[in-house]
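step: validate -> pass
step: tokenize input -> pass
step: predict -> running
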Amino acid sequence: MPSSLRKRFSSAAARCTERPQATALAIAVIAVVAHLHYFIVSADNHERWDSSQYLASARGLASGHGFVDAAGKIEARRTPVYPAFLVAFAPMRFNETAIAIVQHLFAAALAVTVFYLARSTTGNAVVAAVAGLLVAIDSGQIYMADKVMAETLMSITLFAAIAFLARGGFAAAGLMTGITVLVRPIAMYLWIPLALWIVVVQWRGAGPRTDKASRRAGPTLAALAFFLLAAWSLPLLWMWRNHERAGVASLSSIEGEILYYWRGAGVIAIERSGFQYSPLPFQGEERFRYQFFRVAQHELAANIEHLLGARAATMTEAQISAIEGQIGRGILRSHPREVVLLTIYGALHLIFDTTWDYAGAIAGGFLRVALIWWLYVVAVASFVLAIFGFARLRRVNAPFAWLLVTTLVYFVAVSSGPEHEQWRYRVPMIPLYSILIACCIIRRHAGLLRSESR
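step: predict -> pass
step: emit ->
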């Protein structure tokens, strides 16, 4: 590094170390500007994908009819936390612009929170500043905050769960894990890798290796019990509610649909077309997508219609979904090779696909294409830097490094499928992912960046 650049870097590092509040304020300002820019220039409305279903459930709650869908039937497809959050906007008649503004502010605040957690866990003020900035300007965080969708809220609850766990707050971490499950059911098995992390970290850290096993086991079992009790309580209550009201003890009826129409149809399609991969929105997967959307999904829909026949009219959506899930699991068990290939396919899309919706909303023509390519380059570079960041963070704070990686691997594994717009599923992971990326600068500039957490 040239001496002039080194001096500037040293000066910036010193300012971050000596004035953390000013750094946090700068991150907040940058985040607000980035979110405000998108909010002003985008011509998109604030609804996408499942927005109407969340709003319908929120209106049912606000009107005193309970958790029901747009038709007034018992809602078992959507989990309750995000609709409950939307109830706060009932006095404004669920104004979508107001919802988007609040979510943009929450996302900006999350970037600041990432700065403080990274600073306390790495002891490194500049690494923390970089992590916060990455969250502040992330295109996925910005785009999803503008939509009446659960990703922003899930980003907050998931980050809170990991932050509490990193700080030793096992009961609080468990509670936030349970809340995250009720924001989006994709987190329903997150307690498993987190519980394993607690056991390993607590067992190793409870005392010297010369201690007796009982001295190690006591704190480990207590921490695990607090975490599991808190993590299971709310999801189990919701499953009991679904059992009583919808006839199936499940978190969400969408689970069966995903296993059947998405994962099941995906493995059938990949068996017929072979493995194909091209990052979206680029071309190159025509055979697979034809088999998936045009053939396999239609075949499975006809199959379930034939199987249920007239019974379907007397069954709840949750009961039909339970049957679809059972058949879907059977399809996956009978195609183990294709399940692996589909997971790899989905993981590649989740990690490397660009947020082309963001690019399309703020640019057009050649600039849009250039921005999409830039976002793809950033996605590839981010993955490489995150690997280096993990290796360097492990030397500074190995338990935290493994906590981040464990959580990220879980979400990549369970979210990876044949769906379009897989990039949407990585949005809640961005705060954790950004910390790993920022940690790639730890070793090289350790002498310049070291700071004490306050």
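step: describe -> The two ends are 30 Å apart (CA to CA).
step: cleanup -> pass
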